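Postdoc handover notes: sequence design on the structure in folder B. Input tokens:
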């Protein structure tokens, strides 16, 4: 059984989750390969220089021919891109993606060699029409956000905000994607959270797929582990008596991730001895004088990240929408509780007074109330129990066994 994982990049939540799954499958004896624009690992486990995604600068004649072709017969991609460029300054979004690509993934030798294709986050490298028209192998699609069954956007929030500008265009993209996905003969979707699976089923895009499963992401329970909090705080010069909050986001100012709500909440908590540590690209406004803010920027290694999880009192995850963030799982593995809103996969795993606490409303006031309540009861949390929850629910062994069942069932169906 040869499994090929395809994802746009190896970095970011989806790329990391896909790579962890690939490695777990290989360790269990499955022949697995990993294909992305910045990392390619073949079926023998070798990291290779893959020329497939390399950029070849067009010659002068190719440029001229391309321009003439665009004038005479613009493709759907060029039309779509032109429309977006016109509207871009009026739109308000985290990310948009078109279902087109310059790459013909179906021509990659690993795609042809694989028994099953496991798609992950594939925006920018998957051309929906050409790929699903040609590739008739069983496909598992691991959902990392809502984009596969939405139009341009990756979450409902952005779709709602921009619908007045893009309604017809967005619907056309949605229909194009749905039509292409219906070309899949044998397919399964896997979602890390019940919320995302239910949203996918509600869309009816995957109604021809027989298998629809919830399989949580897994994390490295060796790298992410409880450590001596006092020792780490001394090492990092963090006051021992400080109430340490950790906020992690790929991009600090991402509206969906809710840092604005957290900062508003903290402005109501000046009386608490708070230190907030932020991880992620971008600048944070130091608007609250009485609260110490430590902006770390990007943290590159899992070992270093585990240190910050372990020394924090709590991870604050104020996302307006989210799937099953790796940061929550990593925090649990380090024995650190999580405060979040009642959204996505967070509400499925944050157990009140055991693994963390849930703010009922997506408001700064509700979050502030929750943080203050947590402060008064933080000593009641048992870090060993939180770690145990991570071991039971987010181990590589549990994840790869669940995926193997999905793969085996698809292969039986294809016979």
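Designed sequence:
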């Amino acid at each position: 059984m040869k499994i090929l994982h395809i994802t746009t990049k190896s970095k970011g939540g989806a790329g990391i989750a896909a790579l962890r799954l690939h490695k777990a499958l290989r360790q269990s004896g499955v022949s697995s390969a990993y294909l992305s624009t910045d990392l390619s690992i073949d079926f023998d486990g070798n990291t290779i220089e893959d020329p497939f995604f390399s950029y070849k600068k067009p010659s002068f004649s190719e440029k001229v021919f391309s321009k003439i072709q665009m004038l005479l017969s613009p493709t759907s991609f060029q039309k779509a891109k032109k429309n977006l460029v016109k509207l871009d300054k009026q739109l308000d979004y985290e990310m948009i993606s078109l279902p087109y690509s310059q790459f013909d993934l179906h021509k990659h030798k690993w795609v042809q060699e694989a028994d099953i294709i496991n798609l992950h986050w594939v925006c920018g490298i998957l051309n929906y029409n050409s790929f699903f028209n040609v590739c008739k192998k069983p496909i598992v699609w691991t959902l990392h956000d809502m984009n596969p069954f939405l139009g341009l956007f990756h979450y409902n929030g952005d779709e709602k905000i921009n619908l007045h500008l893009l309604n017809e265009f967005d619907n056309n993209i949605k229909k194009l994607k749905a039509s292409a996905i219906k070309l899949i003969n044998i397919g399964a979707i896997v979602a890390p959270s019940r919320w995302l699976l239910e949203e996918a089923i509600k869309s009816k895009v995957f109604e021809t797929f027989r298998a629809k499963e919830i399989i949580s992401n897994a994390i490295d329970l060796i790298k992410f582990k409880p450590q001596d909090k006092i020792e780490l705080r001394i090492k990092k010069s963090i006051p021992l008596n400080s109430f340490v909050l950790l906020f992690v986001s790929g991009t600090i100012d991402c509206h969906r991730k809710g840092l604005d709500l957290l900062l508003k909440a903290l402005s109501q908590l000046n009386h608490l001895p708070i230190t907030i540590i932020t991880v992620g690209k971008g600048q944070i406004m130091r608007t609250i004088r009485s609260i110490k803010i430590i902006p770390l920027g990007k943290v590159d290694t899992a070992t270093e990240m585990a240190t910050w999880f372990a020394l924090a009192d709590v991870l604050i995850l104020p996302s307006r929408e989210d799937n099953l963030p790796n940061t929550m799982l990593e925090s649990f593995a380090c024995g650190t509780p999580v405060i979040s809103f009642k959204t996505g996969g967070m509400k499925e795993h944050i157990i009140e007074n055991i693994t963390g606490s849930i703010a009922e409303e997506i408001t700064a006031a509700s979050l502030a109330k929750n943080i203050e309540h947590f402060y008064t009861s933080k000593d009641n949390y048992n870090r060993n129990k939180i770690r145990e929850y991570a071991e039971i629910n987010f181990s590589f062994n549990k994840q790869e066994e669940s995926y193997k069942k999905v793969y085996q069932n698809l292969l039986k169906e294809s016979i």
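Context for whoever picks this up: Residues 2-218+395-414 form a domain with the Rossmann fold fold (CATH 3.40.50). Don't rerun without checking with the PI first.
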